[in-house]
Amino acid sequence: VQLVESGGGLVQPGGSVRLSCAASEFSFSRYDLSWYRQTPGSERELVAQIEDAGGRTIYADSVKGRSTISRDNAKNTVTLQMNSLKPEDTAVYYCNAKHSWNSVVQYWGQGTQVTVSS
After folding, report:
1. 36 to 72, 74, 89, 91, 118: CA distances (angstroms)
2. pLDDT, tens digit, 9 for 90 and up, residues 46-80
3. Helix/strand/coil percentages in the chain, nearest 5
4. Do residues 21 and 108 lie in contact, with contact meaning Cβ atoms separated by under 8 Å?
5. From CA 16, how far away is CA 28, in angstroms rounded?
6. pLDDT tens sequence across 5-15
7. What confidence score (pLDDT) does residue 2 get?
8. CA–CA dist 11, 44 (Å, integer)
9. How many CB atoms lie within 10 A of CB 41?
10. pLDDT tens digits along 81-92
11. How far apart are the two ends of the chain, measured CA to CA in Å?
């Protein structure tokens, strides 16, 4: 089982980034999908989540209104679009898939670095 993130990099303040996560060897169906981020010395924090059933979305207050999480179960992908980026958005972003019936079953990607700097 593998989750592979892509799309990180260096972005100027005010710019946008589109992060993608693709799954191999399992289906995203029946999994709640999330993006987390982490900076050195800090705990990993939830950025956005999209539920399996109904597709309800949750966003951290810090990114609400400028971020969109979406999923495509047919392609086994989850995407995070972030706009109006700020230096404080700089972090390693991780994709997470957690089974919607059994939260013990979950997988993490390896992370992708997003650096917001001029």
Report:
1. 19, 23, 11, 9, 24
2. 999 999 977 899 999 999 999 999 999 999 999 99
3. 5, 55, 45
4. no
5. 26
6. 999 999 999 99
7. 86
8. 21
9. 5
10. 999 999 999 999
11. 37
- Any residues with CB less than 8 A from the CB of 45 and at least 6 apart, and which? 36, 37, 38, 60
Tell me which H or E stretch contains 70. Answer: strand 67-72
Q: What is the DSSP letter of 2?
A: E
Over range 23-27, report the average pLDDT: 84
Phi, psi of 27 (to 5 degrees): -100, 140
Q: How far apart are CA 100 and CA 65, in angstroms?
A: 25
pLDDT of residue 24: 83
Please name every residue paired with 11 in a beta bridge, in sequence order, or none if there are none: 116
Measured distance CA(101)–CA(51) in Å, rounded = 11
**From its phi and psi, is residue 46 left (phi > 0), alpha (psi between -120 and 50) or beta?**
beta
Give the DSSP letter of residue 43: -
